[in-house]
Amino acid sequence: MRTIAFRFAGAGLALFVNAATAVSGPITFSGSGSTPAGIQATVDAFRADLGSLNPNAPGSFGSGRREINWDAVPDAFAAPNNLPANFFNVNSPRGVVFTTAGSGFQVSANAVNPTSTPVLFGNINPTYPGLFQTFSPEKLFTALGSNVLDVDFFVPGSATPALTRGFGSVFTNVTLANTTSLTFFDANNASLGIFFAPAVPGAEQSLSFLGVDFGSDIVSRVLITNGNAPLGPNEGPGIDLVVMDDFVYGEPVSRMPEPSTLMLLAGGFLGLGLMRRGGFMRGRNRRRLIS
């Protein structure tokens, strides 16, 4: 159960409605492989489950899905430059904003770029092109200075908090089990569960996909944990370095009720008030007749 609060400022009324979440249980889509073809069917099944792909436009379409594949990010916002945390809510409105305890975010460089920056985060460590590969050519995404980031949902192109029904990500180089994960949170910041991406032990440059659909719009935030260490100049035994490719998620919808819902609730309050007033007046008139 979750509690939804509506407040009517003009009328000075507050209503608290207990709304049961109509979810029988999340559906998980999980797969791994050595090439993009190895996870293509799993990614496509998750896409089909969420619905048709919506344009990269402001506002919510109410249903369907959005995607981010990083590949059209301009050179000015790709390595060696950082990606603004709100790029995919402002520059290309898709309703997500990133946060991290690290120093920022980066999208890897194209093979041809004005600064001759190495691909696949070779600018951070020259060995990384041997660890990672892309699902959709030719860019990847990572947090900097941390292996953890948050994805918060908004009505695309606005500051209005939103909810989504599900989220999925492609990962590369998941070699340790039970490390790379998605943790989902509802509008009250309560955990909806942690789900682990499939690992391919010892297989560098592997690809993994994990997507979870809750069936209704209840997800406000997703915490992504990539491997067990952030990217950096050094590597060592027991370290699993993981970065991300495509994001696939349900259309973000506003957390606030539609105006029609508010009108119905206001009408209910008005009707309740009239009923109570009518009962009071009948009782008052009855007392007058008796006296």
Protein described:
This protein is of the alpha+beta class. The chain has one domain: Jelly Rolls (Sandwich). It is 16% helix and 29% strand. The strands form 5 sheets. The chain has a 5-stranded antiparallel β-sheet with strand order 3-13-10-15-4, with helices on one face. A 5-stranded antiparallel β-sheet has the order 5-8-14-11-12, with no helix packed on it. It is globular. The chain starts with a strand and ends with a helix. 36% of the residues are buried. The N terminus and C terminus are likely disordered.
Summary of the model, kept short:
The protein is α+β, with helices and mostly antiparallel strands and 291 residues long. It is built from 2 helices and 16 strands. The protein has a 5-stranded antiparallel β-sheet, with helices on one face. The protein has a 5-stranded antiparallel β-sheet with strand order 5-8-14-11-12, with no helix packed on it.
| Span of the ends, CA to CA | 50 Å
Q: What is the β-strand count?
A: 16
* Integer count of domains: 1
The general outline is globular
Q: Helix/strand-derived class?
A: alpha+beta
Number of helices: 2
Describe the largest sheet: 5 strands, antiparallel
Average of the residue pLDDT scores: 85
For the record, the CATH class is Mainly Beta
